[in-house]
Specification:
Helix content: 40-55%
Largest sheet: 7 strands, mixed
Number of helices: 16
Strand order of the largest sheet: 1-7-6-5-4-2-3
Radius of gyration: 23 Å
Structural class: alpha/beta
Distance between the termini: 38 Å
Strand content: 15-25%
Bound molecules: pyridoxal-5'-phosphate
């Protein structure tokens, strides 16, 4: 990304032919290899991806969505409002807690542009619930010639369940279940730059790419370079070791406990006001509600008030952001990148002196 930003790049030229090429050619190839989809395009963020897909495919027609999935993602991004904005007519089926494949069957008509499935990424419905699966929706859609669009949200490329968390739908699964297009974020569980990724069937990707709004939402070379650099470890199978969010998720309890102990021991006088404590790290920055992983933290009981110690940490260079739990300040090594242990210790020593 730094090289692409500072110098020339082959963004819109094919080095093989010397002719002008598509800016999406490289990334589409990479995304196809990683996800199994035919083709891909990348826009500014997933909100833009969903808006673009619905506009390109749904304008002037109907898009069918489960009542349980006509949700607000956050920051005013509401599926019913996005659909209205795209020029598509929202057709809600099922109920808040239960929607079946037959509800989609009943709604399929001449004017149906697509079925839309939205991953409920920021809330949970429990009790007596039923959800039409993507595969069921694809089965109904295929009989009526209706594509299924899947807003995956986080877009996990690795299995969260293998790391002790709830199952998050995976992009590869969405593609193999037959989604016409799947949309997901570049900067949630993928661990890359802010981007909205659209993968799927070649003819649908082409429709989206040719829509005038695609130009307005396109990404620059630095984003594409950063996204490529993020996808390569997934291809090589080294993502858990190389991608920061997965390094943090996969960090072992022993390594975290050891780093916490080193931090506690490396700051003069810290053992008098702090201790090691079992705690939980929240995962996903709001995109995985309620998901936590066990951790060992340094818990500081400040001699004065917690707020002034937190403020001193924030005003340090580089600023350190810690969290308060029951008047104690917690520092969680799981969230510290490689090489950050020493700067955190320095900041803590300076804040305590101050
Ligand atoms: C986060 C999210 C979005 C928006 O993605 P951004 O990349 O933040 O714009 C859209 N849909 C779902 C289901 C999400 O979880």
């Amino acid at each position: 990304a730094a090289e692409a930003g500072a110098g020339y790049s082959d963004l819109e030229i094919s080095l093989a032919s010397g002719k002008r090429g598509s800016r999406y050619a490289h990334i589409s190839e990479l995304l196809s290899q990683v996800t199994g989809a035919d083709a891909a395009i990348v826009v500014n963020n997933n909100a833009a991806a969903v808006m673009l897909v619905l506009t390109a495919l749904g304008a002037g027609k109907e898009v069918v969505v489960s009542r349980g999935e006509a949700v607000e993602i956050g920051g005013g991004f509401r599926i019913p409002d996005v659909l209205r904005q795209s020029g598509a007519t929202l057709v809600e089926v099922g109920t808040t807690n239960r929607t079946y494949a037959r509800d989609f069957e009943a709604a399929a008509g001449k004017n149906t542009a697509a079925f839309l499935k939205v991953h409920a990424s920021n809330f949970k419905v429990t009790g007596f619930t039923a959800e039409s699966t993507l595969a069921q929706m694809v089965e109904v859609g295929e009989r009526h010639g209706i594509p299924v669009l899947h807003d995956l949200g986080s877009g996990a490329l690795l299995d969260t369940a293998a790391y002790g968390m709830a199952t998050e739908p995976m992009v590869q699964q969405s593609v193999s279940d037959g989604a016409g297009l799947a949309m997901f974020s570049g900067d949630k569980l993928l661990g890359g730059p802010q981007a909205g990724i659209i993968v799927g069937k070649a003819e649908l990707v082409k429709l989206v790419e040719r829509h005038p709004m695609a130009r307005a939402l396109r990404v620059e070379k630095i984003t594409l370079a950063a996204l490529s650099a993020t996808l390569i470890p997934y291809l090589k199978g080294t993502a858990p070791e190389e991608i920061p969010v997965w390094q943090m998720i996969s960090a072992s309890a022993e390594s975290i406990a050891e780093r916490a102990k080193n931090l506690l021991d490396s700051v003069d006088g810290l053992t008098e006001i702090a201790e090691l404590r079992d705690s939980r790290s929240a995962v996903g920055g709001g995109s995985l509600p309620g998901e936590t992983l066990p951790s060992t933290v340094v818990a500081v009981t400040p001699p004065a008030d917690a707020e002034s110690l937190l403020a001193a940490l924030r005003s340090h260079s580089p600023p350190i952001i810690a969290r308060i739990e029951k008047d104690d300040i917690l520092l969680d090594p799981r969230t510290m990148l490689p090489g950050e242990d020493a700067p955190v210790a320095e900041a803590l020593a300076a804040a305590i002196r101050a």
